[in-house]
Nucleoside-diphosphate-sugar epimerase (Mangrovibacterium diazotrophicum), 353 residues
Amino acid sequence: MRNIDRSKPVLVTGGTGYLASWIVKMLLEEGMTVHTTVRSLRDENKFKHLQKIQHQSPGRLKLFEADLLIDGSFEDAIDGCELIIHTASPFQLTGVKNPEKELIQPAVQGVRNLFFSAGESKSVKKIVLTSSIVAMVGDTIEINNLPDKKIDESCWNTSSSPEYQPYPYSKTIAEQEAWRLAEKLNNFDLVVINPGLILGPSLSQRSDSTSISLMIQLCSGKFKRGVPSGAQAFVDVRDAARAHIKAGFLPDATGRHLAAAHLKDFLDVAEVIREQNPDYPLPDKYVPKWLFKVVGPFLGYSRRFVSRNTGFDFAFDNSYARHDLKIDFMPFEQTVRDHFSQLVGDGLIPHKN
Ligand code: NAP
C-alpha cells in the first residue's frame, strides 16, 4: 500500500455533483490543492458554489474540463496528482430512455479513460472509486438468499441488466472493470466505496441530483397517498464524503467498503421532518404492494421491480467500513433535518409559517 503526499494535488472527478462537492469542500478546508473536473467550464452555475467554498478555505481549487466519454479527457487534470477520487458517473433511477448511452457507456468508459490515463501518468498512486450498494445487490428479494440476510462486501449484483435496473447494472460493471484494470495496470492501488442511499444537505442549489429530487418529491406531496414499504440503507452525504477521503489517505485502507449507516424507509424520513414541520404534505402510510404494482409503471417503476423490491426485510453489515476507514456515522435524524433545512433555505421547497 502506498502513502499519499498531502502536499500534492488531489483529483476529484465530477466536482459539480452532490457527493463530490462535499469531498472537494473537505479537502479545501484541510488546505489541500484540489483538481476537479466539470463537463463544461462555460456552465458556471454548476460550479460557482465550489469557487465560493475555495474563497473561504485555505486550499486551492483548479477546474478542468473532462467528459467520461472522451478518451484522454482526464489527462490534464491528473497531472501531478497522487490520489484520484473518481465519483463522476450518471445517477438516474427512472426516466432512462437509452440505458446504454445514458448510463452504461459513461460509467464504464469513464473508468477506462480515467484508469488508462492514471496508468500512464508518473504520479498516480491510488484511485478511490465511488461504486454503490447497488453493485452489491440488485433487488431486495435476493437478500433472502444471503447468509443472515445481510449485505456486505462479499456480495455482487448478478440480477441487473441493461434492460432491467440499468443504473445498478452500470455501477456493477463499472466497478468490476475498475478492479480488472487496477490489477492489469498494476501501478496504483484501488479502494472502493459503496455508499447506500445518500441524503443530507447539498452544497449547491441544484435539484436534478437523484438524492435531492427524491427529498423534494417527498416534501412536495408527490407521495402524500403513501410510500412503498421497504427499507433503504441510508448514509449522510458528509459521512460518505469522509469515507472517500479516509480511503484515500489511510495507507492500509483496502478493498470494497459498504458505506451505509441506517436501515430506514421513507416513512421514517417523513416522520423526522413532520415532528418539527407538521404543515408539509408528507406521507403517513404505505401504499399497498398491489396498488404500487398498478401505479408503479406510471412513475417509472416496472411491475417486476415492484414485485422484487417492495416489502422485503434485509440487513447490512457496515463493520468493515467502520473499522478499515475509522469512521462513525452521524444520526439519521440529523441527516434528514439538515437536508430539509437546506432545501427550505435554498427555496427548493416552500417555506411555511
Ligand atoms: P450527481 O449529483 O448527479 O453527480 C453526478 C456527477 O457525475 C456530476 O458531477 C455529473 O456532471 C457527472 N457526470 C455524469 N455524466 C458525466 C459525463 N458524461 N462526463 C463527466 N461527468 C459526468 O450524483 P451523486 O449523488 O453526487 O453521485 C455521485 C456518485 O455517487 C455517482 O458515482 C453515483 O453513482 C454514486 N452514488 C450515489 C448515491 C446517492 O444516493 N446519491 C448512492 C450510491 C452511489 P454534471 O454536473 O455535469 O451533470
User: Anything to note?
Assistant: The CA atoms of residues 150 and 315 lie 5 Å apart. The pocket of NAP is lined by residues 14, 16-20, 39, 46, 67-69, 87-91, 106, 130, 132, 171, 195, 197-198, 209-211 (CB under 6 Å). The chain has a mean pLDDT of 94. The longest helix spans residues 99-120.
